[in-house]
Task: structure prediction
Amino acid sequence: MRLTRFAAAWIAASLMLAALPALAQPAPAPAAVRASDAERIAAARDRVLPVVVSILTVREDHVQGEPVLSVSSGSGTVVTAQGHIATNAHVTENGRSFRVVFADGRELPARLVGTDTLSDLAVLQALPAAPETFAYAEFSRQLDLQPGDTVLAMGAPWGLSNSMSAGVVNNPRRLLVSLFDDEADYEDRLGADQPTGRYYAWIQHDAAIAPGNSGGPLVDLSGRIVGVNTRGTLFGGDLAFAIPGPDAGEVVAALVAKGRIERTHLGFRLRSLKGTGLKDGVLVNAVERGSAAEKAGLLAGDRILTLQGETVRALQPVDVPALQRRLAELPVGAAVALGIDRAGKRSEIRLTAQRLPDDRIEERAFTPFGLSLAEMTPALSRRRNLDETSGLIVTGIRPGGPAAIARPALAQGDVILRVNGKPVASHASLDAVAGLPPTDGKPLVIEFQREAEQRIAVLAPIHGDRLRTPLPELAKAWAGVEVQPVTASLARDLGLAAPGFRIIRTYPGSPLAAAGARVGDLLTTLDGEPLRAANENSADGFHQRVRDLPIGSTARFEALRDGKPQVFSLALAESPINTSGLRTLALSRLRAQLREIGFYDRAARRLPASQSGVVVDGVEAGGPAGLAHLAGGDIIISLGGEPVRDLTGLAQALERALAKGNGSVVPLQVVRGGETRILYLERYWLTETP
Result:
C-alpha cells in the first residue's frame, strides 16, 4: 500500500477496529521460533534488508482541472548491479519525480525505467553522481512456497525505513474472490481502466504490512525475493498479498531490457468452470466489440477446450490467470487456433493475435484552458460508450477558469477534437496549437463532442503565473481599535455605569491609540450620540458608525475608564486594506499561493510597519515549497540571500538564485510565529517538478 497524506484515515480506522469487542476466541500464540530458524531469519535479513530502499514519489494528480502535487512513499529492492529497483506500479503512478533512500541513509534521485500496470510492477534506476556498482538481491525462479513457510516482509511502513516483519504463507495462490463474489467482476473491481492481477494469483501471507510497504520484497529464509508486497487488508487479521517472485522477476527483467512489456490481445476474457459441473476447458466470459475474437465468430458462453491443439482447463477462478498469461504471451501476428464447444457442438475458430494496445490513461493539466485532459484510446472510448476514438477527453475543470467561462462552457466528459480547425489527438498536439498566447490576441474556437452532439465554443486562454489584482475597495474611515459589544443588561450585570463598546485591542499608531485610548476603556458616545450594541456578539454597530463618517474628519469619543469619564478627540484615518483586497500570485515554479503582506499581517505578528515580505497562503505538499516545509502563514523575507519585498521581487530573486547555480539548495528565510527560520529549497525539485 502506497503511503499518502490520507494515511491518517487508515490509522483511525485501525484504532476503531481495535476497539471493537472480540467476536471469537483469540488464536493461540505461535510456537517459539527454533534457534535454527532464528539464524536463517538473521541471514536472510542481512542479505536483503541492506538493498531495500524507501521511495519518495512526487505525484501530480488532478482536482477540478488543476494539477496538484503531493508526496507519497513506497518501498523497493535493488535487483541489478546498475541500480535498478523493483517496486509496484502504483508506487510510481502519476509520479513526476523520484528519490530513493538507502539503508545507510544515502538519498539519490531516480528515473522511471518502465511501468506495467497490468502486473502492478515498475522499475526505477538510482542515479548516483558518479557510476558505481550496487549490491542487489535476486528473485526466486520458481514458486515453491507452501502454506506455513516463514516469510519476511521488508520495506518502509508509514515511511519508516529499514523495517521488517515475519509471518507465514497462508496460501501461495490466491485471487481476491470470495465464496460470495462473481469472478466475472474480478478485473473490474481491481481497476476498470487499469486492472492488475490479470496474469497471476497472489501469495497470501500474514507478515504485517502497512501503507508504505508497497513494492517491498517478500523474502524466504534462503534470502530470495519470493514476492513483491502489493496490498493488504484491515479485515480478517493481518492479510497481505504479494506478486509471486518468479512472475515479478520476468516482468522486471523485461522492463529493464526494453522499458515496456509486449503482450498480445485477442479480444475476449475468461472465467473458470466453477459451478457449471463441467470438467474440461475454460469459459469465454466476454467478447469485445470489434475485436479479432468477435470477427472470428467467438461468442460469450463458448467453452474453449484447446489452444493451439493443446488441452486447457480452469476448474477454479485461481486457474484463470495462468491461461490469460499464456494467451498474452503468444507472438504478435501469430495464427491462433481455438477448439471450442458451443451448446454441445465442437468446432475450431482461427484468429490472428494482435498487439495489446497501451491503454494507460495519462492525465495532464492544460493550464491555459484551466482543465485537465486525457488522451482518448479505443478502450477508453469503448468503456465510456463514446463514438470518438481520438481526441482529448476533459477529466476536470477549474471553477472560474477559461474552460468554465467559455461560451458555451466546457464540461467534464467532453471530447475536444479541434482547436482553431486543427486536430488535437494528443497532449503534444494541443501544446503545439495552444501552448503559446495567440499572436492576434483573439479567443480560440474549440470543437468538441458531447455525447452524440458536435459542438463549438469560444475560449480565451490565460498563460503564465496567475497574478490576481483585486478591484479597489472604497476607502472608509477607521478608528483603529477592535471592540466587544456591551449591552445594557450586560453592563448592569458587570456593574458598569453605561452600555457601549469595550476596547479589546488597539493597533499601533491608530487614531484612537494615538489619542490615548487603552484596552479596557468603554466607549459610550460618538460625537455626542450614544453607542449602543444591538447584541452581545456583533461589533458591526460600532464599526458602521465610524465608517459613515468622512475620512479625516474629527471624531469625539466619550468613554469610561475604571468608572471615570474620558474624552478622546481625533482625526479618523483611512482604513487599511483587508486581506481580501491584497494582490495574490500563484507561482508555478514553487507550486505555492502567495500574497502581499498587509497591515493586519504585521499587526498580528507584532512586526514593525516597515516590515516587507510575502505571505504564504498555501502550498502543494509535493511541490518545491512543500518539500522545503514552507507552510501557510509563513512570511518570506529572504530568498537566496536577497531581501524579499513584494511578489515581483520574490519571483525575480528565485530566478536569479537558480541562474547562479551555486550549491544544491537555495536558502529561504521566513517569519513563523515569533521566530525567524531558515528553510532550504532543493534545486532538484525546482527543476524536476512541473
